[in-house]
Amino acid sequence: MSTPLLQVKNLCTSFNVDSGEVRAVNGVSFNLDKGRVLGIVGESGSGKSVTAYSIMGILVEPGRIKSGEILFNGEDIVKYNKKQMREFRGKRVSIIFQDPMTSLNPVYTIGNQLREAIMLHTDRNRQQANERALEMLKLVGVNSPEQRLKQYPFELSGGMRQRIMIAMALCCEPDILIADEPTTALDVTIQAQILELMQELQKKLGMAIIMITHDLGVIADMCDEIIVMYAGRVCERGTADEIFYNPCHEYTKGLLRSIPRLDTNHARLIPISGSPVDLTNLPKGCAFASRCDNCMKICLSELPEELDINDNHKAACWMNVRQVYNEAAKGGNVE
Q1: For 290-335, how does the pLDDT look when each residue is reduced to its tens digit (9 = 90+)?
Q2: 167-187: string of b/e by CB count within 10 Å (b at 16+)?
């Protein structure tokens, strides 16, 4: 079996603040194979973006990786020095942020910013970088690319700026593209266009993608595997079909109940009750227990481990353990 392109092993990332240690990512593990699309889903504060920033090495103080490994082609990038990390970013892994207006420099033209990225990570000269920039703008569907190179970010629409960001992320042909809420600031029509563009580019270029979002509906047709995060941990993982049609963690079920559906006669959406857990004071048991309608006594005192539902599906929920026990008892396999 070939080694995965990216392996995240028991990653723990914390922020030391005045109120204590914020354990934003707390033991996250996953693999990403070449050419595959992984979705990471969860509400704000679940640790999705911090996981991405840890991989990219762009955590800001007081954030730091406390423990764990991030293996790219078998090499631990956590041990990289600053020079190695600069070469890794952009050339091997690129990221698209959710708000292109704050990601693009307002005082430089689009051409300047694209050329800088290309010349920083390749041996192209200015003219070759300009040709590559034009090529990338055409690839992402930007009309009048020669004119766009001379314009500033504020002269472009939100959808156009996001296409520019995708072009910038792909200009050095990275092996992995991380998209952190890439459609949040866009209207529904432009969202669909951006997602369709990313699917087309992924198939054309053969790169792997990590798609980060709070909206399961956004990635329904895009991901090979989905990870659901809550309070810095992975609570469920599986194929898109398993997550959507056979959710096994109570938090995943809550997320799905909050998505509008076309087959429910305009049924009222059901929000998840309560508030996210305090990451400076995590409970001993399941972090979702205080918001779970099916909370049991063991949920409050013991942290559930991931249980294999099948070969492609795992969930860390005591409800699944009880179900497995009950099924075994019915079959006479429990003493």
Answers
A1: 999 899 999 999 999 999 999 999 999 998 876 665 655 565 554 4
A2: bbbbbbebbbbbbbbbbebbe
